[in-house]
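Practice problem 4.
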């Protein structure tokens, strides 16, 4: 039998992790606490399945229309990533800068987290002097290059550039908050997620910073799944699934893994002892094994980048365009 704990009309995107259980209904994100639905935030945009990833005691949430970070300790939702400031409006002023061409940019700071840089403004001093920033937002940091150089260094939380101390280079150069992502997961110290045919990944241990022009893998077909194992990532599309072997993006090697993957059907399962010889050394504990539906049946992915078909010659089922999954660990 079954017991109804919570009744919410139109509820969808039920998810549970180590820290909490979440779902959406009527444009509201709810947390299930002891069988009660607690309103923790608003989900903007049309009804569309959410993707969740748990990392560093936070839950990252996204779909093509909305994204946010849920903090289970505070029971609240915050923005994912720090927005970038505008490009600096500059005017010549007094100072000790030698004549030359300078480039100036700014970053915002929210709760100690530095954003990626905003647009860059080029400014030429024809004689010794300084540079005034006319539109610095409150708390924003100013960064500038030395004369006729290309590396940005911290000037400070000031609107006056009188000299450029070449001590602290800009650590978030060309970074920005993530795009609206699907199929997100946390693996190898990074958040991974898809947008259309591309898979993007964050800076290491900086889930709010993405380099959108360079830190991505293009696949040519819409991505329907990203599943992690200790040795790499499975990337699913409607007509095929590939494996990215490795834990560092610039060292990953791609190989074909199998049939097309059905969106929304991924679940991480434990206690698969009968698959020990198939799953291989990285999953000898049979913990967090990715299992999902492909066009050829339900599969489990192993650390060698191979798919093991759990239903071949056992169950015949229709192949939907998308689905959902539930894993239960029975005692």
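Answer key:
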């Amino acid at each position: 039998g079954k017991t109804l704990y919570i009744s919410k009309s139109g509820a969808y995107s039920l998810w549970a992790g180590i820290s909490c259980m979440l779902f959406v209904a009527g444009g509201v994100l709810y947390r299930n606490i002891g069988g009660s639905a607690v309103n923790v935030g608003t989900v903007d945009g049309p009804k569309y399945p959410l993707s969740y990833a748990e990392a560093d005691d936070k839950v990252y949430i996204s779909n093509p229309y909305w994204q946010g970070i849920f903090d289970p300790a505070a029971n609240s939702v915050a923005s994912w990533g720090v927005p970038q400031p505008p490009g600096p409006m500059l005017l010549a002023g007094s100072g000790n800068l030698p004549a030359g061409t300078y480039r100036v940019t700014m970053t915002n700071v929210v709760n100690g987290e530095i954003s990626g840089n905003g647009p860059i403004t080029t400014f030429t001093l024809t004689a010794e002097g300084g540079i005034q920033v006319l539109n610095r937002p409150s708390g924003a940091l100013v960064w500038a290059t030395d004369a006729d150089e290309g590396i940005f260094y911290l000037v400070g939380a000031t609107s006056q550039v009188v000299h450029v101390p070449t001590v602290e280079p800009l650590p978030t150069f060309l970074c920005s908050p993530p795009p609206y992502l699907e199929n997100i997961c946390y693996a190898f110290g990074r958040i991974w997620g898809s947008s259309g045919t591309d898979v993007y990944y964050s800076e290491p241990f900086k889930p709010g910073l993405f380099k959108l022009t360079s830190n991505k893998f293009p696949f040519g077909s819409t991505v329907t799944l990203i599943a992690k194992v200790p040795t790499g990532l499975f990337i699913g599309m409607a007509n095929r699934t590939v494996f990215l072997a490795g834990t560092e993006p610039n060292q990953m090697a791609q190989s074909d893994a199998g049939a097309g993957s059905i969106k929304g059907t991924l679940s991480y399962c434990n206690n698969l002892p009968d698959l020990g010889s198939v799953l291989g050394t990285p999953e000898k504990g049979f913990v967090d094994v990715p299992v999902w539906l492909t066009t050829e049946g339900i599969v489990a992915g192993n650390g060698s980048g191979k798919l093991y078909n759990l239903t071949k010659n056992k169950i015949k089922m229709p192949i939907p365009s998308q689905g959902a999954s539930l894993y239960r660990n029975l005692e």
